[in-house]
Known about the structure:
Blueprint: H1 4-17, H2 20-50, H3 52-57, H4 63-86, H5 91-96, H6 98-102, H7 109-142, H8 148-175, H9 179-197, H10 210-218, H11 228-254
Helix pairs in contact: 1-7, 2-4, 2-7, 4-7, 4-8, 4-9, 4-10, 7-8, 8-9, 8-10, 8-11
Amino acid sequence: MQGLRILLRKELAEGWRTKRTPVVVGLFVIMGMLAPLLARFTPAIVAASAGTHLADALPTPTAADAVDQFLKTTGQLGAFVAILLAMGSVAGDRERGTAALVLTKPVSRAAYLVAKLIALGALLGVATLAAGAATAAYTAVLFAPLSLPGFAAAVALVWIGLLVPAAITFLGSVLVRSPVAAAGLGFAWVIVGGVAAALPTIGADMPAALTGEARQLALGLGIGPSASAIGAPVFVTVLILGASVTIAWRAFSRQEL
């Protein structure tokens, strides 16, 4: 792939120059910090706003509540950020005319797409890791230390889960010329994936099921009762990622810029 190193360096440098990288990482760190804080102080907030009789009815918060809050926040808000990051990857360049300009240089179309995908995945990975580190640190202070190997595996599953809306939005960014339309495809997946995850027949095999396995790992409980508990959703996730990238490449290789 001719020019991959140069294009990847360009994508990473652009992330710092436009402040996209520090802003996204900072946002994820805030999410990671807030997860255990919300878990710890929710009873006090409820007592201050609705009275102690409601606060007394709430169970005593534990480290599991901090993990649940972390998974919920990164799964929902993190997916929104992933879509925003991917929506203009190719469509935005075509709108500005920079895609055609870049590809007049001695670089290949494959390198152009792969550089963007690596930069996108790396940014989401670093941001998710930073959020996980913040959650682990604050949970250790406010509750009890988490199992570091298990929580690290949980963070990896969160990252893999965020790659799905990012990849589908990236596909949309290749197929259409409007970043907004590309984002629409990503949000459509979030809705469809959420509905599919609630179905009794296929829900356990959808990428959203990774959240349940991530919780098990974060709390040091291991994976579900069988290897398929995590194997099936991981397989489906990899299948979706592979299909999205393949279709994006086939479409992009035939497009007139």
